[in-house]
Give the backbone structure.
Amino acid sequence: MAETRLLHIMAAHSPLSAILAEEAGFDGLWASGFELSALYGLPDMSLISMTQHLDMLRAIAGRSTLPIVADIDTGYGNAINVIHAISEYERAGASAVVIEDKTFPKVTSLVAGGRQELLRIDEFQGKIGAAIATRRDPDFLVIARTEALIAGLDEADALHRAEAYVKAGADMILIHSKKKDPSEIESFSRAWTGSVPLVIVPNAYPDLDAERVRALGNIRMMIYGNYGIRAAATAMQETFRRILADGGVQNVHKDILPVEEIFRLQKMETIRAAEARFLC
């Protein structure tokens, strides 16, 4: 962030997906609650516990050198829960957390007809204040995510909430939208005069690319929030269907990664070298 450039953050749900994101050249990782929920075959409705999410984050931190932005939804409860969460996530290896201003339990933002209830502004300010007061490293970012546009409020409401969260100490504001075009995000960005930069998650409006984002000037982080799990599910669906349709793996075998590439990602040679050196 100190280099004042646009950061590209890829969602991860496992150490393997984190390794692939790092090799691809992303600036950081999004420890995604949505992707972890999907990995368990569950909806993103606060069904995955903090312990499960922390286990994933620790495993990722152990296999990647990239900074990790942790998606902690609503902070797992009230301001007291946030205090506990910040201590645990900072200790686990996160570089930032994103906390959203919806009620607990939450419903994922982009589902049609989902319940999108917002906290009172002062209550969410308390959560942000608790997070700021708890962190030990001043470079550990607390990012406030407003779901005002998701909940059907207008830009003025979203700006008002974002300004209140900055007053509470937020280091960045994540502004979210479910419109299929980026008009709401671009309008909010142009209207934003706050002292902290913005974060966006261009899942619903994929046409907003890096060039257009840089032109806006105050967006410093783009999070690609569910592309890892969607890409993995796409590949598995296609491969599994082909195997049954073909009556075997004779056709798909040549179209997927060789097992040697999986060995490389697992650092098999490093482990074998250690085995040869240290085991008698």
About this structure: The mean pLDDT is 96. The first helix runs from residue 15 to 24.
